[in-house]
Amino acid sequence: MDTIMALCKTLIDEEKVIQMVLSNVKKGVEKTYQKVEIKPVVIKEKYLYHISYFYEQKVKHENVEGEILLGILSEILGAYFKQGIVFTSAYDYQILFSKKGKGTLLRKAPTKFEMTLSHNREKHYILKDGVPCDFLQALGVMDASGKVYKKKYDKFKQLNKYLEFIEDAIDILKRDDGPIRIIDFGCGKAYLTFALYYYLVIQKGFQVAITGLDLKEDVIDYCNQVAKDLNYSGLRFELGDIKDYQYEGNVDLVVSLHACDTATDEALGKACAWHAKVIFAVPCCQHELFNQIKQPDLEPLLRHGVIRDKFATLVTDTLRTTALEVMSYETQMLEFIDLEHTPKNILIRAYLNPKNEVDEKKAVKTYVDYRNHFSVKPHIEKALGAVFINKIRLYNP
Ligand SMILES: C[S@@+](CC[C@H](N)C(=O)[O-])C[C@H]1O[C@@H](n2cnc3c(N)ncnc32)[C@H](O)[C@@H]1O
C-alpha cells in the first residue's frame, strides 16, 4: 500500500494525473458509492481535483486540493474499492486489491493523452504564450513581448506536446556522470531541437550535448548561427546522412521527427546500436511497403491505392515497433498532435528495458509471423543489422 500511495502522491504532486477511476466495491462493506471519478481542474489559478461520486443513478461533486485527495484515496482505495486506475500520458496504472487487502500495481500503455482541465480553459503548457522565450523569438514563433503569432500557434502547440513527452522521460534520461547525449536525426529547421535544449538546459538546469543532423547545408548553417546567437553552447548542428552518421560512445536519447520514408529506420537502427535509453520517432512518407504488401484476404482493402497507402503506413510502423521489441525496447505508439494539424501523427516511443524483461522469443515470433503474413521485407531489418537478423533467424515458423 505504501508504494501505491507513494506513486499517487508523486503523480498528484507533479500534476501528471489525467483521470482516476475507482471502482469495484469490496464485498461486505456498506455500499455508498458505486464508482468515483477524479479529474484535475484549475479554478481561479488553483490546481484542484474534481471528484464525482456516483451512487443510485445520481452524482455528487466536490473540488479538493491534491493533499485532500490523497487523504481520500488512502481512506477508500483498498478499504472500499478493489480497483483504481490512474491515467497519465506516460502510463495507465492499474491498482488491484485482493480480498485480504493486498495491493498490486500494474503499469500499462497509456490510453489517454490530453489533459482537459474542464473548469479552466487554458492548458498547462511548458512554453507559455505571453512569456518571452529566446528561441521562440529567434525562430519567429513569438514576438518580442512573448505573444505567439497566430499563424504559428499550431507549431507552438506541437512544441509543447513534444516537451510533455520529454518531461515523461526525464527520470530515465538524467545522469550524474556527464551531459545527457541527444541526437535529433533529420532536424530540419530545428524548432523541436531548440525546444529540447531550452527545456532541458534553461528550464530544468541539466547539462546536455545535443546534435541535430540534416542533409541540407543551408538549414545546418542557419541553425548553427541561431544556436551561436542564443549562446546555446551544448547544441550543434551537423551536415550528414543518418545512415553514415558516427558518434563516439553511446547516446541517451535519439529523436527522429518526420524524417522521410526509410530514414526513420536508419535512425532506429543507430539508436539500437547505441543502446539509446529512449527513442522518439514520428515517421512519415512510409512508401516502401506500398508495392510489397501481399495478403489475399485483404484484397478488397488493398486494391484501392489511397487505402493501401494508409494501410502500408500502419503495417510499416507496427513492424518497426515489434522490431524494437526484439531489440529489448518497450514500445508505445501515441498520438503526437491532433490530426487536424498534421497527418504525420504517430509517435513511436521506445524505452530500453535495461533488465531485459522484454520477452524476446515472443517478440521475435510476433515480428516474423506478422512480416510473413504480409509477405514483406521491411528496411528496418537492414537498418538494425546483423544483431537483429541473428535474433530472428533462430525462429522457424
Ligand atoms: C519534414 S522535415 C522535419 C524536420 C523536423 N524534424 C521537424 O519535425 O520539424 C524532415 C527533415 O529530415 C531530413 N532528412 C531526411 N532524410 C534524411 C537523412 N537520411 N539524413 C539526414 N536528414 C534527413 C530532411 O532534410 C528534412 O529537413
Structure characterization notes:
This protein is globular. The mean pLDDT is 89. The chain has helices at 2-13, 66-76, 134-138, 153-173, 191-203, 217-230, 263-273, 299-302, 305-326, 360-373, 379-393, and strands at 19-25, 35-43, 46-55, 58-64, 81-87, 92-97, 103-108, 180-185, 208-214, 235-239, 253-260, 278-284, 329-335, 346-352. The chain is built from eleven helices and 14 strands. The longest helix has 22 residues, at 305-326. The strands form two sheets. The protein has a seven-stranded antiparallel beta sheet with strand order 4-3-2-1-5-6-7, with helices on one face. A seven-stranded mixed beta sheet has the order 10-9-8-11-12-14-13, with helices on both faces. 36% of the residues lie in helices and 25% in strands. With 397 residues, it is an alpha/beta fold. Helix 7 links the parallel strand 11 and strand 12 (278-284). It folds into two domains: 2-118, no CATH class; 134-395, Vaccinia Virus protein VP39 (Rossmann fold), CATH 3.40.50.150. Bound molecules: S-adenosylmethionine. The site of S-adenosylmethionine has 16 residues, from helix 5, strand 9 and strand 11.
